[in-house]
């Protein structure tokens, strides 16, 4: 009896909507809010951490999930150490399915309240391109 109950609990957890802890335009966490930037045929999630002296900002990894016909990005948690204040972060998007959804304008950011906000997509600027090409530590793959 215990095994079927565990399977039921796992199935229910897997079907739950992902939980977000940071809004797209959260000034306490971002100086430059998350956006999708593209250079050539490469796409990245890009944001700059806020520069708050009295509030350390820990490393955040953007997660994504495909829900129905939407690609949903969100931050579910932060690391428990480090201080990323003022740092620029670029995370490459490599999944073919995700890239197709971005090109079809089906990319969204999940807010803390569950609302989905359309993710802005723009061309990478010169600074972004230089960081991407250099393979600097601020570019996460």
What can you see in these coordinates?
The chain is of the alpha/beta class and 141 residues long. Helices cover 22% and strands 33% of the residues. The strands form two sheets. Strands 8-1-2-5-9 form a five-stranded mixed β-sheet. A four-stranded mixed β-sheet has the order 3-4-6-7. A hairpin with a 2-residue loop joins strand 3 and strand 4. The radius of gyration is 17 Å and the shape is globular. The N terminus is likely disordered.
Tag the structure with descriptive keywords.
141 residues, 3 helices, disordered N terminus
Write the layout of secondary structure elements.
Blueprint: H1 2-15, E1 30-39, E2 42-49, E3 63-67, E4 70-74, E5 88-93, H2 96-103, E6 107-110, E7 116-118, E8 121-123, H3 126-134, E9 139-140
Parallel strand pairs: 1-8, 4-6, 5-9
Antiparallel strand pairs: 1-2, 2-5, 3-4, 6-7
As a percent range, the share of helical residues equals 10-25%
Profile the largest sheet. 5 strands, mixed
Give the integer mean of the pLDDT values. 85
Low-confidence stretches: 3-15
Note the quaternary state here. Answer: single chain
Summarize the structure.
This protein is of the alpha/beta class and 141 residues long. It is built from three helices and nine strands; from the N terminus they run H-E-E-E-E-E-H-E-E-E-H-E.
